Amino acid sequence: MFKMMYRTAGCSPAFMENVKDREEFLRFRALLAESMGFTTEQTNNKLFIYDKGKEFGVYYAEYPNGK
Q: How many structural domains does the chain have?
C-alpha cells in the first residue's frame, strides 16, 4: 500500500489517499492535470505538474511504515 502525497510549490505536503497501484494513481492525476491545461512529467515514480514551464506541484508516494 502506498501513501500518496501532493506538494504544491512553496507549501507543505498533503496526504491524498492510500492506494495499491501507484502508477495508476499517477497516470490518472496526469490525465486530470493535462485536461486542466497543465503539462506533466513523470520520473522516478513522481509526477511533476508544470504551469507555463514553472513547477506547480508534485505527486509522490510514501510507504505507510516509513520505508
A: 1
Q: Could you report the per-residue pLDDT of 5-56, keeping only the tens digit for each?
A: 999 988 999 999 999 999 999 999 999 999 999 999 999 899 999 999 999 9
Angle at 49 (CA atoms; ends 55, 41), nearest 5 degrees = 105
Q: Say if strands 39-43 and 14-19 run parallel, antiparallel, or are unpaired.
A: unpaired
Positive or negative, the CA dihedral 23, 27, 32, 36 is positive
CA distances to 20, 26, 63, 65 from 43, rounded to whole Å, are 19, 11, 18, 23
Q: Is residue 30 part of a domain?
A: yes
67 in any annotated domain: no
Rounded to an integer, what distance in angstroms lies between the CA atom of residue 65 and that of residue 67? Answer: 6
Residue with cell 495499491: 20
